[in-house]
């Protein structure tokens, strides 16, 4: 009987030991580990680091939830405000963080809870609470997004953001990380900065495919920019790409060739800039269209004020394609304009019905070259040169499908404000 009591006590002790969960040494404040039952030695739980760090104060309202995981991957992120309300956020493509859909509010406390799961199924949850800064008194850098919601664009349309004052070189990577472009179907690209920091442009290696949906977010509100400035606003827009249209203007022949889907529609006689005010040669993009506008160059060496119809802007400096009934006798023969491309009233009216903002316009054979940044000049350089302007690494596999820039008549696609920049209606 005594031996039986001893055996019972030993059996009970063994069951108790077997039921005790294995505790992995090492813990972090706010971190919890969940262990799934298994056989043999349990695999280590993933390690998670979250930013902002717990109890951080004075966090910018542009903050995102940064995640670093070892031995697993993030499987859940929960962000709530100090009233327990969820704050929607989207993951970065590289998994480095989650970006709130809207800027956070000033002087508020937020809680982020990040869960990572390892290959074995074990999970680790890290929790952090942080407080945002009071409203900043630093001067803002104004940003303008040249991409409008619900608009249809041409296949050469870059996404353009302009800044006033310019973004200093050392701050461009931080700004670029807050500029987001999504395309459907996917056509990844990159951003490229103008050397003066007044403008940054986004395009893919090839022209957009017709029907592509482009969603843009310039999430700069509250972003610290350099030591002494802060971002001004959060801009969003979603547009789509329409039919392929391109124009080629040749100074030698004084003709404009108009292509749609790779086919020549029509040739139009033109009069370009006279020798004292030449038209720029290069690859431009139609920036905006006016049924009626006024060119006003008062204050310049050649002042005039003239009303024009059917005008399409090509540069910030004031080069347009527009109706010029006064020069119809010279069109096709002589250059008489102040830098614009003059066409007949009938041709200008016809063009307005054919073109879209974002269509490629190539001018060749004139006395001067287009200055990079004078308009939407993303296609005025080859892909390799364009990619050099990125402040962040560009994926090595991102290359054009064509060995050279397509002829303007080629079908696009293939197998991503004043005073900065200066904007004026000074054409003629």
Automatic annotation (TrEMBL):
A GO molecular-function descriptor: peptidoglycan L,D-transpeptidase activity
Keywords carried by this UniProt record: Acyltransferase, Cell shape, Cell wall biogenesis/degradation, Peptidoglycan synthesis, Signal, Transferase
InterPro entries: Big_10, LD-transpeptidase, LD_TPept_cat_dom, Transpep_catalytic_dom
Region (Disordered): 82-104, 394-428
Stretches with biased composition (Low complexity): 406-428
Domain L,D-TPase catalytic: 245-364
PANTHER family named in the record: L,D-TRANSPEPTIDASE, L,D-TRANSPEPTIDASE YCIB-RELATED
Name of this protein: L,D-transpeptidase catalytic domain
Species assigned in the record: Micromonospora chersina
């Amino acid at each position: 009987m005594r031996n039986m009591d001893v055996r019972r006590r030993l059996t009970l002790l063994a069951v108790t030991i077997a039921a005790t969960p294995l505790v992995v040494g090492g813990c972090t404040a706010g971190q919890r580990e969940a262990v799934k039952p298994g056989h043999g030695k349990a695999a280590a739980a993933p390690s998670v680091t979250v930013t902002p760090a717990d109890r951080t104060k004075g966090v910018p309202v542009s903050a995102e939830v940064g995640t670093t995981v070892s031995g697993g991957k993030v499987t859940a992120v929960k962000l709530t405000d100090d009233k327990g309300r969820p704050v929607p956020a989207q993951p970065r493509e590289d998994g480095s963080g989650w970006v709130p859909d809207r800027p956070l509010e000033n002087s508020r406390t937020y809680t982020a809870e990040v869960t990572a799961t390892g290959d074995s199924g074990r999970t680790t949850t890290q929790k952090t609470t942080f407080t945002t800064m009071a409203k900043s008194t630093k001067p803002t850098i104004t940003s303008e997004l040249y991409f409008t919601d619900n608009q249809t664009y041409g296949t050469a349309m870059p996404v353009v953001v302009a800044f006033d004052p310019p973004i200093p070189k050392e701050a461009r990577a931080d700004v670029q990380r807050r500029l987001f472009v999504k395309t459907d179907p996917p056509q990844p690209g990159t951003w490229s900065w103008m050397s003066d920091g007044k403008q940054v442009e986004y395009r893919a290696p090839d022209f957009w495919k017709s029907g592509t949906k482009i969603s843009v977010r310039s999430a700069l509100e509250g972003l610290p920019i350099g030591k002494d400035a802060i971002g001004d606003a959060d801009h969003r827009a979603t547009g789509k790409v329409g039919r392929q249209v391109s124009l080629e203007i040749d100074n030698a022949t004084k003709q404009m060739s108009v292509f749609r889907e790779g086919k020549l529609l029509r040739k139009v006689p033109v009069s370009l800039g006279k020798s004292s005010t030449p038209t720029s040669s290069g690859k431009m993009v139609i920036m905006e269209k006016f049924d009626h506008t006024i060119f006003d160059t008062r204050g310049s060496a050649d002042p005039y004020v003239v009303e024009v119809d059917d005008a399409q802007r090509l540069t910030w400096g004031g080069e347009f394609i527009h109706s010029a009934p006064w020069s119809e006798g010279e069109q096709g023969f002589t250059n008489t304009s102040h830098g614009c491309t003059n066409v007949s009233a009938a041709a200008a009216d016809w063009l307005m019905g054919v073109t879209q903002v974002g269509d490629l316009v190539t001018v060749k054979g004139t006395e001067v070259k287009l200055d990079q940044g004078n308009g939407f000049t993303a296609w005025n350089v080859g892909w390799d040169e364009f990619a050099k302007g990125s402040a962040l690494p560009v994926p090595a596999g991102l290359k054009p499908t064509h060995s050279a820039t397509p002829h303007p008549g080629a079908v696009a696609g293939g197998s991503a404000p004043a005073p900065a920049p200066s904007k004026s209606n000074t054409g003629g």
